[in-house]
Amino acid sequence: MAGPSASMNELEFALLTEEKKIARNTPIVTSVHPLQIVDEEIPMTEHDIPLTAIITPDEIIETKSPLKRPKGIYWKMLPPEKIEAIPVLQKRTKQD
After folding, report:
1. What percentage of the chain reaches a pLDDT higher than 90?
2. Over the chain, what is the mean pLDDT?
3. pLDDT (tens digit, 9 = 90+) per residue, 75-88?
4. Of 93, 37, 47, 95, nearest to 69 (Cα)?
5. Closest CA to 22 of 37, 12, 35
6. Tally of CA atoms within 13 A in the half-sphere of 91 that contains its CB
7. Cα(1)–Cα(12) distance, integer angstroms
8. What is this structure's pTM?
9. Contact 30/51 with Cβ under 8 angstroms?
10. CA-to-CA distance for 89 and 93, rounded, in angstroms?
11. Beta-carbon count within 10 A of 19 CB
């Protein structure tokens, strides 16, 4: 998780996973507009987070992803400038 194009959500998920604040059975849910829902496979990378459910204004859609959740921060995928721009990442690299 948390590669070069990682969103803040992915970084937060990675940090919380490493701190054992998110368990394997913790639901991962997002809200979307109904127009954002597609009935086709969306390409995912190793740092993308598979969802448990999608919520629209009118329904809750449970998802079943065969993909595994990221295990934490994938440091080798993070560019140095991203680490330098985010204080919590700077602190973690100094601790290791």
Report:
1. 40
2. 86
3. 888 889 989 999 99
4. 47
5. 12
6. 4
7. 10
8. 0.74
9. yes
10. 6
11. 9
**Residue 14 identity:** A
Q: Give dist(CA 38, CA 75) in Å, integer.
A: 32
Instruction: Retrieve residue 81's tokens.
Output: 């400038």
Quote the CA–CA distance of 18 and 77 in Å, as a whole number: 16
What does the DSSP 8-state code read for residue 34? Answer: G
- Distance, CA of 30 to chain centre: 11
DSSP reduced 3-state for 15 = helix
Q: How far is CA 28 from CA 22, 65, 88, in A?
A: 9, 12, 23
Residue with tokens 């394997």: 24
Instruction: Give the separation between CA 68 and CA 65, rounded to whole angstroms.
Output: 8
| C-beta contacts of 21-28 below 8 A and 24+ residues apart | 24/69, 27/52, 27/53, 28/52, 28/69
